[in-house]
Each structure stands twice: as structure tokens, then as C-alpha cells.
């Protein structure tokens, strides 16, 4: 989905404002070098400047409203037209066109940060990136139409074409990959990595990758650690297996099937210090002892040796 609103507005702006353009108040000196370290080339570029300094405006109406702003750079027709703030950089037609008091923004691409008015510390690289942002702050965007309909969301990072494109007011989201997190609208603190569209109502969720047939993560298999076991359900969600009856139903005795379990011998132990430096006291089962009772209850490592105990039926 590409946003065309900015293009329509830009055309209307050109039609309405173009015929009303005034004759420049000061004839530009050679190479457009004005006092105060300002440089302007193009019709009405830096037209309203009074005490502003070290601004660069190249293109029709670039920085046209700037009076006292400083250290701004506008390259392209209609860049930073209404800006009166400092330290903004806009490259590309219509980039940061509507910015007024927003400061320290960087927009590189046609209509990037087009609607921004008061938002600060945003970085938008790509055609239409952060196009509809108005007051959102500290967003970082790289990619065509990424975060393009964001209005007030803050602290978002979107890298990839259309990444987080559907976000309106969500904060603290991270999306990496083309279309990553595109369905998130108002959720906060999500992380979407890969060409994964995300889920509309997500908040504080981590989603990595599309539907796959294999996943390999180095540094896990064969590396013993202590703590609660982490499991993966059928949908790919990670978590821990709860034991409280609050999470269980259809509870009934195992009858004769419990004989194998009753034959097991729980023990107390300490993990070796290279595994658990604190060497806290533990209780549980020893895989080699469980193997003697029922080998099917044991999970083996790559060398076929007992590694851990299987608890699922």
C-alpha cells in the first residue's frame, strides 16, 4: 500500500502558491552566498530569512518561511518550506515540507517526513518514509513507505520497504525486513524481524521470521544451563510449562501407568561449577538412572548419550 496523499497535497501546493510567488527581496549575490553563512539557490529559497545563519537552501521555495532558523539544509523543490526551527536536513522534493518547529530531523527521499510539524529527532530515509508523521519523535526509518502513516508514535525503528507502514500511534516498536510489522497499528514495544506482517493487537511481542520448516540457532544445542526449561508450542511461541492446577484440566490418576514413574529415584544435587558458578542446591532426576527404568523417557545428545529427561506423554 503506497500513500498518495502527500503527492496530491504537493500538487495543490504548487498550483496555489506558485502563481503567488513574490519577487525575491534581495538579489542573490554570486553563487547565492548571503550574509551569515547562508546559501540559497532557487525561486524564493530562504525568501523570509532575517537573522538565521548557516542555512543551505537549494530548490524552489526551499526554506522559504525560515526567518531565524540556523544550520538547516534543504535540497529539492518544496523542502522545509514552512520551517522556522534549527538543525533540520531535507533532501528530496517535498521532504519535511510542512515542518514548522520540529528540530534535528533528517529526511532523505521524496515526501519523507512530509507532514511533520513539531516532531523532533526523526530520521527518515526513503520515498514517503514517515510521510504522515506530525508530532512523533525519535523515530528511525529506512525504506520506501516505512512508517508512512505514523502520526504521533515515538521511538519506533523500521528498516525495510513498508516496514511498520500501518503503525499510527504505537511506540517503541522495531521492525526489520520488507513489510515487517505492517499490521501493527497502535501496539507498543513489539519486535518483528523478517518479512513478517505482525498481528494488529500485538504489544510487547517478539516475532521472528515467516513460516519455515527448519530453525537453527547456534550456541544452544549441547550447552548445559540451569533454570526453568523453555518449551515451544505448536504455533512457535516460546514459554515455560506451568505446573499449577490453575492451568490444567481433566486431571485424573495414571493408575498402572504410574508404575514407571514410581520406580524413578529423585535426588538432590549441585551442578558443576562450570555450568552453575553459584552451585545452588537442586532436586530432580538423573538421566542415566531414568534410562535404566525406561529408556523412552530419556532425550539423547548428538553422540547418543543420555542428556535430559522427557516429560511429555
Description:
The chain is elongated and about 90 Å long. The longest helix has 13 residues, at 5-17. It has a domain at 230-309. Helix content is 8%, strand content 18%. Mean pLDDT is 86; it is low at 17-26. It starts with a helix and ends with a strand. It is built from three helices and 18 strands. The protein is mainly beta and 313 residues long.
Question: Topology of this structure?
Answer:
Elements: H1 5-17, E1 33-34, E2 38-41, E3 56-58, E4 73-75, E5 89-91, E6 106-108, E7 123-125, E8 140-142, E9 157-159, E10 174-176, E11 191-193, E12 206-208, E13 230-232, E14 238-240, H2 259-262, E15 267-270, E16 281-284, H3 287-293, E17 298-300, E18 306-309
Parallel strand pairs: 2-3, 3-4, 4-5, 5-6, 6-7, 7-8, 8-9, 9-10, 10-11, 11-12
Antiparallel strand pairs: 1-2, 13-14, 15-16, 17-18
Considering the chains and any ligands shown, give keywords for the structure.
single chain, mainly beta, 12-stranded mixed beta sheet, two-stranded antiparallel ribbon, 3 helices
Please give the radius of gyration in angstroms: 30 Å
Strand content: 15-25%
Structural class: mainly beta
Overall outline: elongated
**How large is the count of helical segments?**
3
Helix content: under 10%
Strands, count: 18
The largest beta-sheet arranges its strands as 1-2-3-4-5-6-7-8-9-10-11-12
Q: Main beta sheet, described?
A: 12 strands, mixed
Residue stretches low in confidence (pLDDT < 50, at least 5 long) are 17-26
> What multimeric state do the chains show?
single chain
State the separation between the terminal residues, measured CA to CA.
47 Å
The succession of helices and strands, N to C, reads HEEEEEEEEEEEEEEHEEHEE
Mean pLDDT rating? 86
